[in-house]
């Protein structure tokens, strides 16, 4: 098992610190979910992990070898960026087929047959220019590039953001199929958590330029609870636990608890329910912010 | 195939592609001139000579223009496909030199066939003369990447116009003053100086390139 | 088609319970092959590792067994053993909840008994 590691990564844009001393270890052979709010630093982190952009401080290694300017590391990674619909620069000015041809030129394990199959599946018009594509088709292009690259570590940035529900299901199934067949590592960043949560073996939660969680999804959810009931009793029951996002209606109170380990039983006087990844994420990230 | 070889393939393909575009545009111009001069004695000859000269000029200009855009445009594509900064650096050099050499060969062959070999040295001066501009344009391109999009557009227009003007002036002077001897030592010196400036500029470009990033 | 997974339990537990349910309902019969982890993960849109975890629970419980190079199969006697386990937890999982709800809404002992008796002609 290989590891893509980032040590003490700091990224500053002028006065803004986008990443604050991030440490991360991606083990190969797993599907990772990178979740965070818009602007939390997901794209910046992925760009730096793949040496597409330089870090202000810190070091990225794959199996102990630096990633920066290193063919041995770079040739094992594909980071299919989210293509912005801005028309002036980058891949936008290319035709879809020319963009995918770039992939064919640069990725040594590129699978053209697979690419063609996916183009058909997503009904993508390859003669169109990238900036003329709809949001959904833009997503399809990044997905096709990522999957057909056949790279050992494949990273997708917000791949489902523009897709409709049917295409999203298609995408999840494609990833599972490809993962089952090849054991490739996938890192999928998303803020649409609910429907993708069950896909992630491990989840990395990033908030405000910091990694707040990096854990096996099942283990994480096994120690997360929503505790509700009468306020006094809830307070008593969750005393000593890490509590997020308390909400009250009248005398009724509900809190999200993230314990250090699964808890056998809270007191009988409160209601205890499991928490979905999305709700846990919400609870952890909403505190200390203005509520909308 | 190594990463260096794969990215070189990309740069070779692009230069061939751009030569193709240049030829296509000159072909259009040829047809246009053929119409303009229709009825004249040597209409075909006039149109042909014009088109080839424009082809030469176009190739000489396309190089710096491409270099100006690159840091903002094409380089990011290479990086986002897992290419390295040094692949961009060497790929661009190969592409730029290959581009003018191909242009030179095509133009020279046409001139030779058409029986105006005296035009060949002018093409040589033009092509090699464009190299320092190309290096300069790449540096400017990197600078505008740092300083925003409006600057990109403004400087692109200014640089494009001045490059065009410079080429025009140098081109017309070549006709008027005839101060450049055909071939020989001074031509070699000219080429060496042009290459020298280009090479020196690469030192700066290498530094800028090593910080390249995807926008 | 997409399977319906709830949020009230870990996904791998739900997977193992669903396979158990299918065995109880004779949708999966003894000595029959169980869907592979890939098939399960595609069907339910879950990570293959999670699906494997669900299957492994059943292997540990002696309900499924592995035929090398072929896949997972339902063990002989699996249905009985599931029934037995579930019988043991029936009170904890179902009866307790009925009683506590009955208390909450004031259904008397006799009324509750009558309700159950009258519907017991299964």
From TrEMBL, chain A:
Any one GO molecular-function label of the UniProt entry: ATP hydrolysis activity
Keyword field contains ATP-binding: yes
Domain ABC transporter: from-to ranges: 4-233
Keywords from the UniProt entry: ATP-binding, Nucleotide-binding, Transport
Xref: InterPro entries: AAA+_ATPase (IPR003593), ABC_transporter-like_ATP-bd (IPR003439), ABC_transporter-like_CS (IPR017871), ABC_Transporter_VariousFunc (IPR051782), P-loop_NTPase (IPR027417)
Protein name per its UniProtKB record: ABC transporter ATP-binding protein
TrEMBL record, chain B:
Keyword Membrane: yes
Record keywords, A-Z: Membrane, Transmembrane, Transmembrane helix
Bilayer-crossing regions: 18-37, 43-68, 88-114, 120-141, 150-169, 189-209
Coiled-coil boundaries: none
Protein name as it appears in the record: ABC-2 family transporter protein
TrEMBL record, chain C:
PROSITE patterns named among the record's database cross-references: HTH_GNTR
Keywords: DNA-binding, Transcription, Transcription regulation
GO molecular function: DNA binding; DNA-binding transcription factor activity
Residue ranges occupied by any HTH gntR-type domain in the UniProt entry: 9-77
Gene3D superfamilies, sorted: Winged helix-like DNA-binding domain superfamily/Winged helix DNA-binding domain (1.10.10.10)
UniProt xrefs under SUPFAM superfamilies: Winged helix' DNA-binding domain
Highest taxon listed in the record's lineage: Bacteria
UniProt keyword annotation of Transcription present: yes
Protein name in UniProt: GntR family transcriptional regulator
